[in-house]
Here is the input.
Amino acid sequence: MLIGIKEGRRHCRYRSGMCKACSSAGEEGTSSPSGGAETTGWEHFAHDADIGVRGWGPTPADAFAQAALAMTAVITDLDLVRESEAVRIECTARQLDLLFHKWLNALVFEMATRGMLFRAFAVTIEGTRLTAIARGERIDRERHMPAVEVKGATLTELKVEERQPGCWLAQCIVDV
Amino acid sequence: MDVKLFERISATEWRVAPTGAMRVPAVIFATEDLIRDMDDKVFQQVTNVAALPGIVRAAYAMPDAHWGYGFPIGGVAAFDAEAGGVISAGGVGFDISCGVRTHLTGLPREAIVERQKDLANALYRQVPVGVGAEGKIALDDQEMTAMLAGGAAWALERGWGRAGDLERIEEHGRCEGADPAAVSSHARKRQRREMGTLGSGNHYLEVQEVAEIFDEEAAGAFGLRQGECVVTIHCGSRGLGHQIGTEFLGEMAETAEAHGIALPDRELACAPIKSEVGQRYIGAMRAATNCALANRQIIGHLARQVFAQFFRHAELPLLFDVSHNTCKIEEHAVGRDRKRLHVHRKGATRAFGPGHPSLPDALRPWGQPVLIGGSMGTQSYVLAGSGTSEERAFSSACHGAGRQMSRHQALKTWMGRQVVDELLTRGIVVRSPSSRGVAEEAPGAYKDVRAVVDAAEMAGLAKKVARLQPMICIKG
Here is the structure.
């Protein structure tokens, strides 16, 4: 599933340990025509000198993709990033939370070495292996006005969990 | 933080006796007010550090202590390899050897004021800054290896600097024992186009006025005269250091159990100094230290080039270059013995006292310069290591102000343009590629650095020498 900004920031917002998708999924999960899209989203959460990225969606892969959007949004406004180039990313880890940590760090590496920003992610997770296509473009300092460099994803506040059936959450603090 | 958690030893020393898994006491050097303002997590983190294998004397926290990954920022801890001591990637920090250097200009404030905006523009053009800025220096793999082994000495050999610079840098500009082969291809790749770049976040290049002198004699020896200007650079080992930190943190977290280490927090990941991964990290960390030393040396050189265009006789001699995210082998007193220890300083500055043999002749009678960064609108300080800093905290002092507000909150509170305009009315010219970055780094987002340095002096960690006031700030 390709998650872009159009799917991001829908009604489902995680607040105080519960997201609306979790609390309402049982009622409208199958009846709402847009039920799938409503259960995806991302946000930032405050953390001392750095910042937290959090994504959620019906599958771990969706949550990973949403959190990646949140990470780009630490650097710039997502609406300013175009999808002109695609980069393939692969990583493996024995645990799902460590796979998320590796996924974000793989994106940090690609952003740093290619000088790119990404705004759409097609993520597949099979067992311990993640493969993804990240779409974005080269940094244009005039247009993107990047606020801060994300130097790495950390193990702090690292969580990947199914909060409710069909609502996965992935989060950690990124070091800026 | 609740001061009742601590036993008050003096107005600036607070202690937690060992309990539970703690092997040594935890000690915080700060005033009661600073402790009350500190995050509760500092207590948790400093007591966690006190529980690590092979720690000696105490786990220390400086007056600017705040939450960090695993170790608190402002944390100092020393480990004895012979007693199963550990090395911790989280105890050094992700931005390995991040630090500060100050160059003297000998120019009066008026000379800068006359050409302040042009000078700011020229520095902004010359020093690559912010996200996506590439340096003019591209290193192939062979040169990368030479840089990782040679540090600032390598930079000097390539023409970035002058002969006198090296004695004004910790370890004479080159960290011995670096192992470039322990630096991954990913880390090397991240650094290929980042040499001589400032980065973003709280890193900066500032032109500052010496606004106040506290110790005339030491200031004189340091070359600091009231009303004259200096250039101060704050940055680290860029992408390379961060990649090394991230990779080894993961590896140490995975291997901790096999080494018999129970981690209360994964970010506290560490390995025995005498283990294979421990030694490999030390080699890579020293290589990253050399990267940071070379990086600051190159940026210092770029600043010199700009000043030469404006002021023909300004040579910008280096006052000193200190790192505040490090682990170094040093000899210190432990009980009646002197031992070689692995001293971690994370967000803490080494502060050798007067007479230390590693200091250059001109500085030795006064102690090592300790350079403390404030925020872009407030003051920075030059301190000198005091005679009591060794017994206090393995010759360590604070490193800066520390944030009091999250980036998120700062962004809600200020607009970048408004911050730039407000600072301009106070005579401070800011140049940055990112208005949002400026808002996130607004002076009000930082704690009052004065309270921190006053506490450091009262605690006997370092003596105040001079206060610096920013005039130009180049920010990432």
Confidence is low (pLDDT under 50) at residues 4-21, 23-37 of chain A. Residues 96-114 of chain A form the longest helix (19 residues). Chain A touches chain B through 33 residues (CB under 8 Å).
